[in-house]
Write a structure and sequence with these properties.
This protein has 92 residues and is of the alpha+beta class. The chain is 46% helix and 26% strand. Helix 1 runs antiparallel to helix 2.
C-alpha cells in the first residue's frame, strides 16, 4: 500500500487504485476501510486531498480567507507529493 498520510492509504491493484482509511476496530486491531475506487493514481490522490482538506477545515472555525489559505497549502503539498512520486507535475 502507498501511505499518503497517517490516516489515508492507497492500495494499488491490477486495474484500479483503492483509497482506504486506517482505523482501529473494537478489538484494537488496525483495519483499512475502503473509501473509493479510482482508475488512476492521480485520481486517488486527488480524492485523498479532498478528504484531507475537509478534515482540516472541520478542525476549527475559520473565515473564508483562512480557509482558502489552508486549501491552497494542501493543494501545493499534494501536488508536490505527486510530483516527487511520479516525476511530473500533475494538476490537482
Amino acid at each position: 500500500m502507498i501511505k499518503v498520510t497517517a490516516k489515508y492509504y492507497i492500495k494499488p491493484d491490477i486495474d484500479q487504485y483503492t483509497l482506504t482509511e486506517m482505523k482501529v476496530n473494537n478489538k484494537g486491531e488496525t483495519v483499512f476501510q475502503n473509501l473509493s475506487y479510482h482508475t488512476t493514481l492521480t485520481n486517488a490522490v486527488r480524492a485523498c486531498m479532498r478528504l484531507v482538506q475537509a478534515d482540516e477545515l472541520a478542525k476549527v472555525d475559520m473565515n473564508l480567507p483562512e480557509a482558502i489559505k489552508v486549501l491552497n497549502r494542501l493543494n501545493r503539498e499534494f501536488s508536490d507529493m505527486l510530483f516527487d512520486f511520479m516525476g511530473q507535475m500533475e494538476e490537482l
